[in-house]
Amino acid sequence: MRTLFSRPITHRPAHWLALAILLLSLLPATALAHPAAAPAAQGDEGWLASYWNNTTLSGAPILTRIDPDVNFNWGLGSPAPEVGVDNFSARWTRTVQIPAAGQYRFTLNSDDGARLFVDGELVINAWYDHGPSRTFAATRTLSAGSHELRVEYYERRGAAVVRFGWQPTGGLPVAPAPTPLPPPSAKLPAGQWRGEYFNNRDLLGTPALVRNDAAVDFNWGMGSPATGVIGADNFSARWTSTLNLPSGVYRFRATVDDGVRVFVNDRLVIDGWRVQAAATLESGDIALSGAVPVRVEYFEATGEARITLTWFLTGGAPPPPPPPPAGDVWTAEYFNNADLGGAPVLVRAEGGSINYNWGTGSPAPGIVNSDFFSARWNRAVNLAGGTYRFRVAVDDAVRLFVNNALIIDQWRQQGVTEFSAEIALPAGAIPIRLEYADFTGDAVIRLSWELVSGGGGGGGGGGSMPEPSWSR
Fold this sequence. Notes:
The protein has one helix at residues 14-26, and strands spanning 47-52, 63-67, 71-75, 88-98, 102-111, 113-118, 121-126, 135-142, 145-155, 160-168, 177-178, 193-198, 209-213, 217-221, 235-257, 259-264, 267-272, 279-282, 286-300, 305-315, 329-335, 346-351, 355-359, 373-383, 386-395, 397-402, 405-410, 417-425, 428-438, 443-453. By secondary structure, it is mainly β.
C-alpha cells in the first residue's frame, strides 16, 4: 500500500525552527488531535492472509501468514513456494480502529479478479478476469470505532497483481490505528487447526477471532470460546486443517451441541446442521491416503456449547469397486445427504426398472432419510448398436450418464418434470449411471429408454423397460 499522509522531513535554520514552534503554540488543540500517519501496518501488525491453490477460495488454505500490506506485483511468479504461479486465490482480513467519523475512499487494482468488503458489505466488485489497467474505487462513510476490511483476489494466468489503498476524502487526515485479528502463526503447524470464530450462527462476515487450535475438542458449557470477544450464545466457528493419513478406510465422528458439518476432501460427510442437544454423529467409511483437507463448521444456538471431532481407521485400503452388473440388476447406493457425499448408508441390488414414487416417505425407512437424501444406480445394459432416446421423470434432481457421457444434467430442486436426450451407441454392454437427489416434499425418479434408429431391437437390453406413466 502506498504510504498516505506522510511528509518529508527537512532541516531548517534555527530561526525557522523558533518560528515554527511559535506558530504551533498558537494552533487550537483540536488541530493536533489527529496527527498524520499512514494506515499501513507497523511492526508485527498487518493483514491475516490466506492463500489457496484454486481460484475460488475453497477448501483449506495452503498457506496462512501475516502480510504487512496488500500491495503485490508478483509478475509471472508466485506469492510463496507453496502457491502456484497461476490459478490461485487469496484473502486478506484485518480490523482497523477509526478515531473519528468521516468519509473514506477505497481503491483496488488487480490482475485478475478482486473484491473489497467493508464491515461485511461488498463495496468494490471486480471479480472477473482483467488486466491492471483500471483502478476501481468506492467511497464510504465510516463511524468512529472498529471496522473490518476484507480483500479477496484470484489469479487466473499470466501476470499477478493486487494493490489496495484507502484514505480520508477531505479535512485533516485521520490515521486509523490498525488492530489486526489475533494472528495464527505464519504457516499453520502440522497437527494444528485454523479456528475462525463468528458472532453469528451462520459463519457470516469477517471472523471476530482467528487463532490456531491444537484440536477440535471443546466443551464450553454455558460459556464462550473467548470471553469478551465471542458471545456465549448464537456464535459459529470454522476449523480447517490438512491431515496426513496412511492409506486406509476411515470414519469421522463428531459430538456436538448444537449444529455441525464435516467436510473431508471438500465432500460433506457429516451433516447435523440443526439445533440439538448433545449428540454423536458419524460418517460412513471413507477411503483416504496422504494429505487430506478437513473442514469442520459449527454453530451454537443457546444453552450448552460443545464440539469434538475424532477419526479412526476402520480397515486397510479398500478394493476397487466392482463393475456394474450386466442384465436386469442395478447396484443401488443411498446416501443421507443430497450430494452423494461420503459412504452410502445402504447398498443393495435392485432388479427391473427404476420406477419409484416414494411420496414424502423414504426408500428404506429407518435407514435412509425421507428428505435430503441421494442415490446412485449403476448397471451395464446389453444393447444393439443404434441411436437411443433416454427419458427421466424426476422430483427433485437428476444426472444421467450413458456410456460414461453426461446426457441429462438437471441437478436442482423442482417438481416432477420429464427430460429426454438421444445418444448414438455401439453394440455391446453399455454402462448406465443414474444419480438422484431429493430435497424436500415428494420423491420421484423414473428411467426408460428406446431405440430410435439403427440396431435390431430396443428396450432395456437384459430386460425390457415398461412404458412409463409420467406424472406432473
